[in-house]
Amino acid sequence: MTEEEKEELWLKNKPRLLRENKEYQEALQAFKMKSGADWLLFAIPVAAGIVFINSVPITPEWLLWIATVGVAVVVFAICVFVKSLSLSGRLPTEIEKDIKQQFLKQLK
Q1: Residue 35 has what pLDDT?
Q2: What share of the chain is helix, strand, coil (3-state, %, to 5)?
Q3: Over the stretch 28-57, which tens digit does the pLDDT of each residue have?
Q4: How remote is the C-alpha of 66 from its chain's centroid?
Q5: Whether pTM exceeds 0.90
Q6: Are 89 and 30 in contact (CB under 8 A)?
Q7: How far apart are CA 75 and CA 81, in angstroms?
Q8: What is the rounded distance in angstroms from the CA atom of residue 39 to the CA atom of residue 47?
Q9: Are 44 and 79 in contact (CB under 8 A)?
Q10: How many CA atoms are closer than 13 Å to the CA of 27, on its beta-carbon side?
């Protein structure tokens, strides 16, 4: 069996294998919004944008708005990064890689 055939088989069976894997499903659930603290992922960037727009004296208003959106996006990325650090266990991509290796090993 060639590598291309193995890859094709993996792509065909991937959704089923991921759906049946308990560890993968638990890792996906960890990224869902479950608590009030998770909603801070949205509140903190909005608050940072409001503070920024009210405290930074940028003369062209359009530049101020663009900078505010940039600050909010960066703060959101930092919040998501901090949340990912607080998650226990492995990332779904790591688990998927292991499932694929096991599947390809079974084909041999």
Answers
A1: 79
A2: 80, 0, 20
A3: 887 777 778 788 888 999 999 999 999 999
A4: 24
A5: no
A6: yes
A7: 10
A8: 13
A9: yes
A10: 16
